[in-house]
Amino acid sequence: MNDLEKVIDGIDLGLPAPFAEPERQYYFIKKGREYVTARSKELGRDLTCSIQTFGCQMNVRDSEKLAGILEQMGYVRTESEHADFIIYNTCTVRENANRKVYGHLGLMKHLKEKNPEMKIALCGCMMQEQHVVTTISKSYRFVDMVFGTHNVYKLAEIFVSRIESGSMVIDIWKDAKEVVEDLPAVREFPFKSGVNIMFGCNNFCTYCIVPYVRGRERSRNPEDIIAECERLADDGVVEIMLLGQNVNSYGKNLEHPITFAELLRRVCAIEKIQRVRFMTSHPKDLSDELIDVIAENQKICRHLHLPVQSGSTKILNAMNRRYTKESYLALVDRIRAKVPEISLTTDIIVGFPGETEEDFLETMDVVEKVQYDTAFTFIYSKRTGTPAAGMENGSTKEEIQDRYNRLLRRVQEISDVKTIAIKGQTQPVLVEGFDEKGDGLLTGRLSNNILVHFPGCAEMVGKILNVKLVECKGFYYMGELAE
Ligand code: SAH
Ligand code: SF4
Ligand code: F3S
Questions:
Q1: Which of 95, 378, 404 to mutate to test the pocket of ligand 1 (most atoms within 8 A of CB)?
Q2: What are the backbone angles phi and psi of residue 265, rounded to the nearest 5°?
Q3: What is its main location (predicted)?
């Protein structure tokens, strides 16, 4: 039994639920555990759970927290959607993310008819939209629980309330009340972990729904972050990914303000942590101090995701990005001057309202000048409630698709050239496990995030080893262990 299990075990359910967090949740976890134990006994089998995660690293991390709570309640995890408890952790950043969830729900209805034990929960960003919750509560009555992004930590309480009330529970908060620390979490990998350093976003880029569904920017205290990283390190984690929608504005609103660069320094000072990554950097807030910290510190991975969104200053302005094409390019120059080996990746939106062929060519020009290692390209998707939803789009669907195709082609050509340029080098690789093809090869990541497959054995998983990059296969490498 670990420490947390002991605490939960010692709770007296004869007393009323405490008000303070996280003790309140421990209480409901224990209640949930009683239910799960009793049902398992009656059914003569384990109860299984499955979490389907859509969207970004924030959701991935939230799902690990959900998994931690479910595991403490006694559910056994399975990948399959044939589970006794299924959670969809949703994303709504673009319309197609949204559509996927409704697709899955259709299937779930049938599965639930066959398994009366089955519980279905919907959570995450989509649930923070009023019209979605209205649709679910009207047309998807078989859903058991609906909650949002601010109360993920309350899963056990929501579950108990569903069991006790016998009807659908909907619990959505407009914004976060507090940052609750010290709840269980299960890691997807034993040797690497995401760590939230902040929640929400204050930037209100005009196309983006994230500030509306994730609330205002809140930074965690550096002490709590460092303590979590130290705990993870003691537990075998060697790579940490610091997570926030805009890590460069970390700490500005804390009672004792601290810069992101300073936080990075402190994380790197933890001896057992060997690699540090972070996501995402907003170009407007990337400081020279941060560039220096990256340059000085070899633990920080040589990879920077720096979303440009558009190369046209006019469009950047309409997007409320608060930088220009020139200032972005100057920033890239400053970064490359101090950290020449860094791999740069980006996000680009094509077809933002008002984008002309000329604006698009400015984007192509930035792609040409920066030479990104990879770029994630998106066609603009209108999100209800954002300022851009009310803007006119002068371009046709066909024009936008044509721009998108041209951009994608060029981005891939450059990416291929970039990837092949390191052929023959020997680089450290964090070994993540055997690859999915089942050919017995190990798979791992370079500091710059490129994947490498190479022969090796199970004992190497979780270690950082030197691997020679022998053959470039497009976006990944085949390699062999170096002495
Ligand atoms: N906080 C991060 C991005 C989070 S969303 C940042 O500021 O960089 C991830 C990406 O989705 C964005 O960078 C953007 O390129 C894309 N995106 C966001 N809203 C979009 C929309 N309405 N249509 C198309 N792409 C969008
Ligand atoms: Fe969205 Fe902009 Fe915030 Fe990123 S910085 S999450 S794109 S509003
Ligand atoms: Fe999607 Fe929410 Fe992330 S909308 S991209 S899961 S913050």
A1: 378
A2: -55, -45
A3: cytoplasm
Our CA dihedral for 67, 70, 76, 78, rounded to 10 degrees, sits at: -40
* pLDDT confidence of residue 1: 66
- Which residue reads 């170096």 in tokens? 482
326, two tokens? 């020139």
Contact 262, 217 (CB under 8 A): no
Number of Cβ within 10 Å of residue 139's Cβ equals 10
Atom index in ligand 3 nearest the CA of residue 57 equals 3
pTM confidence score? 0.94
- Whole-number Å distance between alpha carbons of 218 and 180: 12
Mean pLDDT of 54-64: 94
Residue pair 447/301 in contact by the 8 Å Cβ criterion:
yes
> Vertex 100, ends 98 and 101: CA angle to 5°?
75
Give residue-wise pLDDT tens across range 215-228: 999 999 999 999 99
Q: pLDDT tens, 78-115?
A: 988 889 999 999 999 999 988 889 989 988 888 999 99
Q: Say if CB 209 and CB 386 are below 8 A apart.
A: yes
Q: What is the pLDDT of residues 9-22, one digit of tens each?
A: 899 999 999 999 99
Q: Give the number of the atom of ligand 2 that is nearest the alpha carbon of residue 93.
A: 1
The total number of residues written for the chain in this structure: 483
Which of 214, 240, 215 is CA-nearest to residue 226? 240
Q: What residue spans of 312-449 are helical by DSSP H?
A: 313-318, 325-338, 357-370, 397-420
Ligand 1 pocket, residue 202 CB under 6 Å: no
- Contact residues for 466 (Cβ-Cβ < 8 A; gap 6+): 426, 427, 428, 429, 481, 482
- Report whether 68 contacts 186 (CB < 8 A): yes
Give the model confidence (pLDDT) of 331-380 as tens digits. Answer: 999 999 999 999 999 999 999 999 999 999 999 999 999 999 999 999 99
* 237-279 per-position pLDDT tens digit: 999 999 999 999 999 989 999 999 999 999 999 999 999 999 9
